[in-house]
């Protein structure tokens, strides 16, 4: 499989444009955390000039999968994908199993009181059958976002024919475990009812990973046409957005498209990753997390006592812990919890 990406690696022109957007490089100023520096090492490796050290493979994981470099790269290189394939051919991580273990522990002891939204009793039985992809995080930890999302879907014409609670496979990609990722993707694809109109997702990380899952399907186009983020679904339905709230929106870096937001919400996160939960960085790389948090997180004066909403569940968790660590007081909700609460208060 590594041969498949050899050509890709050769495409890097060493222009260095990724320097200006990679949040890890901007914080650490270490070329080994930058696509360019890594592609130089990989070039030499493919030319038979060096071996890949364990340290190098480990450092490939010091990447947030934020897609910032991908969107900026003139050679159109998908760095995170290349790093994942290299990891898969060298040392497969075991974070996926640790993550599953953590989810089970959290679901038993419920250490965070983040459940706020209740499920509406009336359920829509319209002919517009939709699938809601809640993912494992919502299933075990964040039923509030799940309830809010289902309420919004059903109030806006969707008949939730199925809720999929499988893991999207993101922790498997983070481990470089491509074989297991493919099997997991197959399970997800096989569980989607043929006649559903939309596959709706309330988490940007799950959405981005489902795009990768559906690339493996026999009929990729059919699935990609149906996959939609919840805010875009609401936009299709001309959902009336709130007009009076003064809220901040943390836009996850891996989200390429605009979010359907009211004018009263101000977008933040223009320069860095901020949550450091992308690629589970905050959990997997504590040393680096502690070192760079101050440099990439929001300034206290910008978010103190404010309400922040986001469209990514793991970003929400990262915002929560990072603000707590820096002793910043702010309220953090998923965007859909906010919309649901706004219209039911
Ligand atoms: S922007 Fe792309 S082509 Fe330029 S150095 Fe970075 S990875 Fe290479
Ligand atoms: S995906 Fe993000 S963190 Fe990773 S190399 Fe690219 S810009 Fe840097």
Q: Would you give an account of this structure?
A:
The protein is an alpha/beta fold and 345 residues long. The chain folds into three domains: 2-88, Fumarate Reductase Iron-sulfur Protein, Chain B, domain 2 (Orthogonal Bundle); 129-236, Rossmann fold, CATH 3.40.50; 247-344, no CATH class. The chain is 49% helix and 10% strand. The chain has 19 helices and eight strands. The strands form two sheets. Strands 2-1-3-4 form a four-stranded parallel β-sheet, sandwiched between helices. β7 (307-310), α18 and β8 (331-334) form a beta-alpha-beta unit. It starts with a helix and ends with a helix. The mean pLDDT is 89. The structure holds iron/sulfur cluster (2 copies). One iron/sulfur cluster (SF4) is lined by residues 12-18, 35-36, 39, 73-75, 77.
Assembly type of the chains comes to single chain
Distance between the termini: 54 Å
**Category from helices, strands and their pairing:** alpha/beta
> What number of structural domains do the residues give?
3
Beta-strand portion reads 5-15%
User: What is the number of E strands?
Assistant: 8
> What does the overall shape look like?
globular
